[in-house]
Design brief:
Elements lengths: L3 E4 L6 H12 L4 H12 L4 E8 L2 E15 L2 E13 L8 H15 L4 E4 L4 H5 L4 E4 L2 E4 L10 E5 L10 H12 L5 E3 L3 H13 L3 E7 L9 E9 L6 E8 L3 H14 L3 E7 L2 E5 L14
Helix pairs in contact: 2-6, 5-6
Length: 290
C-alpha cells in the first residue's frame, strides 16, 4: 500500500492524530508536550509533514524554520524535530519518504542547512546527513572560578523581575554573530520562548555579570542555559553564550553549577547532524533549541 505523504493542515482534525502519535512515541512530560504544541507546533515557522495510509497517520515529522548566524551572515536554516512512526509500521522505510519530502521542500525554498538531533545517527547518515558533533558530557568538577568576581541572575518571564529579553538578544547576536561557526540567531522571541520552556522544565537561563562593572548590557559576561535531559530527567548546562573561547567559557558553567542546587556538574552536548546543500565546511554551535 502506497504512503500518502503530505503537509498537515494545523487547523484540521488531523492534528488529533498528530498529537496521539507524538504522545505514544515520546516520553516527554505533559507540561513540556503542552508547551511544544502551543508554542512550537502552532507557530507559523513550523510545518508538519505526515505519512498517511487510508487517512490514518502512521508517520510524522516537524520542520522548524530558523535564522542562523554564520561569520556575520544570516543564513536560512531548518530543524527537523519530533520524527516518529507508529510502532507497527517501523522498519519499512516510510520515514525515508517523509525525509525526502522535507529535504525537497527545504531545497525549493532556499534553505541550505537542515539539521537534527538524532537518536540513531546511522539512520540519517543513509539519507545524506553527516555527524557535525558527537554526543558528549563535558565534566566541570575540576574547573576553577572565583565566584566573588561575578553576579548571577536567573531570567524570568515576569518583566518586572527580569526585563532582559532585548538585552540578552543583543548580547547574544553581538558575541556569536561573527564567530567561525553556525548557530541559532537568538532574538527577543527566542529568549522569551526559552525562558518559558526552562520554567516548564524546572531548568533556567542565567545571566552572569561582572561585579566590578557598572550596570548595563556592557557588564554581561555570559548567558548560561540549563536544560532538562529527556534521557535521564536530570538538569545539565546545555549552552554557554559568551565572547570567550570554549575552554574559557567553562568557568561560567561551573559558576552556575556551584550556585544552583540540582544542576549536574556536566555540560550536556547532544549530537547534531546536518544536511548541507552547499557542501560548505562549517562548525556547529547549535544545541537543543527548538
Amino acid at each position: 500500500m502506497n504512503l500518502d505523504v503530505r503537509f498537515v493542515n494545523k487547523e484540521s482534525e488531523e492534528m488529533w492524530q498528530v498529537r496521539e502519535l507524538y504522545d505514544s512515541s515520546f516520553d516527554d512530560t505533559i507540561e513540556y508536550t503542552e508547551f511544544f504544541f502551543k508554542n512550537i507546533v502552532h507557530d507559523r515557522e513550523t510545518e508538519i509533514i505526515g505519512g498517511f495510509m487510508e487517512d490514518k497517520l502512521i508517520s510524522v515529522l516537524f520542520l522548524r524554520k530558523k535564522k542562523l548566524l554564520s561569520g556575520g551572515q544570516r543564513v536560512n536554516g531548518c530543524m527537523i524535530y519530533g520524527v516518529a512512526t507508529a510502532e507497527e509500521y517501523r522498519g519499512k522505510g516510510y520515514m525515508s519518504e517523509l525525509m525526502e519530502c522535507a529535504l525537497s521542500y527545504c531545497g525549493s525554498i532556499n534553505i541550505p542547512f537542515i539539521y537534527l538531533i538524532p537518536v540513531n545517527p546511522k539512520i540519517y547518515s543513509n539519507m545524506g546527513f553527516v555527524l557535525a558533533r558527537e554526543e558528549k558530557k563535558v565534566p566541570l568538577m575540576d574547573i576553577e572560578v572565583n565566584e566573588e568576581e561575578y553576579i548571577v541572575e536567573k531570567a524570568y518571564l515576569d518583566e518586572e523581575i527580569s526585563p532582559y529579553n532585548e538585552t540578552l538578544s543583543f548580547f547574544s547576536i553581538m558575541v556569536e554573530g561573527w564567530k567561525n561557526c553556525i548557530t541559532t540567531e537568538k532574538n527577543e522571541h527566542y529568549f522569551m520562548r526559552r525562558i518559558e520552556q526552562a520554567e516548564v522544565e524546572n531548568a533556567g537561563i542565567y545571566i552572569v555579570r561582572g561585579k566590578n562593572i557598572s550596570d548595563g548590557m556592557e557588564d554581561i559576561e555570559a548567558i548560561v542555559v540549563a536544560s532538562t535531559s529527556e534521557e535521564d530527567g536530570m538538569t545539565y548546562i546545555s549552552d554557554i553564550i559568551c565572547a570567550d573561547e570554549w575552554e574559557e567559557s567553562l568557568k561560567y558553567a561551573k559558576l552556575i553549577v556551584d550556585k544552583e542546587a540540582g544542576i549536574m556538574p556536566f555540560i550536556n552536548l547532544k549530537p547534531i547532524m546536518i544536511y548541507n546543500w552547499t557542501g560548505t565546511e562549517t562548525s556547529i554551535k547549535l544545541n537543543d533549541e527548538v
